[in-house]
Amino acid sequence: MNKEILIKYINNKCSAQEFEEFAGWIESQSKDGDCRRWILEHWRNFESVYAKKDEKKYSALLDRIHHEINLQNGKSTNSKEPVISKVAGWFSRAAAILFIPLLAILIYLLSDNNYKLYKFTDMSVDSIEVIAPIGSRTVVQLSDGTEVNLNYGSRIKYPRNFKGNTRKITLSGEAYFNVAHNPDKPFIVNTGKLNITATGTEFNVNAYPEDNIITTTLVKGKVIIDKKLTDNKIEHILSMVPDQHMIYNLNSDKVVSQMVKIDKYVAWKDGKMVFNNSSISVIAKELSRKFNVDIEVADDIKKLTYTVTFVNDPIFLILDLMAETAPVSYKLLPRTKYADNTFSKQKIRIEKR
Length: 353
Fold this sequence. Notes:
The chain is an alpha+beta fold and 353 residues long. The chain folds into three domains: 125 residues, no CATH class; 137 residues, Jelly Rolls, CATH 2.60.120.1440; 82 residues, Phage tail protein beta-alpha-beta fold (3-Layer(bab) Sandwich). 33% of the residues lie in helices and 31% in strands. The strands form three sheets. Strands 1, 2, 3, 4, 5, 6, 7, 8, 9, 10, 11, 12 and 13 form a 13-stranded mixed sheet that branches. A three-stranded mixed sheet has the order 15-18-17, covered by helices on one side. A two-stranded antiparallel sheet has the order 14-16. β10 and β11 form a beta hairpin. The chain starts with a helix and ends with a strand.
């Protein structure tokens, strides 16, 4: 790889082929001594300008990178891949947001003197945000011992170390929590409108921002659901018991609660998609979210129901199975090519057969 490709990558101007060459270089050649010196030289040049310009943002980016490396070295749904490959894969999805900090990762992975990076990650930035990219799940271990499974396209924000009398985190999307027991320091999941509070409990929360509902499913222990009011007051809604499922409608402000078989609501963390008498519209929404596609359902079949369980199956195998066992068919719609040679999201239409 030459320096021109590196500069193109930093400025988000490299082609897909050049990016593949760059990622391959990271994986196969970057341990070479000359490469290490070259990276370090460019890192120092970049650091002197960027760090002075916006030290807080700079340290926050480094903190995020550091945490991502910890995640890849720890629990992951694809833990068999080499660390360097997983980091490169993460950046292929996040390239639009974080270009230059890839140099920091290389220094972290390849340099024997990475104390400087540690110094930045230990600065005053006290919150970390973790995102599970589309099509993958992530497991996060919090400082108190709580384990969080993040579903596709979900994110959590939490402090490095919990201080004060509570353990507060913010969730956007879906997560399964196995909370470390601490009755003196309640664990609070904030979803914007609701607070879900526990002490030592297993529960699932679904709060994607594009949906008009928030759901909570309790597996073990007890959780308390509170609604945040406009005057900063808290209104108690519900105290849940195991096997209870709660639906809060953001539009109507109504709460529905019932006892359920919880497998349907928590199977996703084991790679399963469980649909029990679910409408085609609901299935299409879940598939769209998981596989990062747009699925359009014809009006005359939106209420058609389907019962099936998928286990780590690819999208087209799922669609083929649906077409074989239900009176539906599907077709791929043409993708739009943009001026920068990228393409629109794949669109799929499901209609009556």
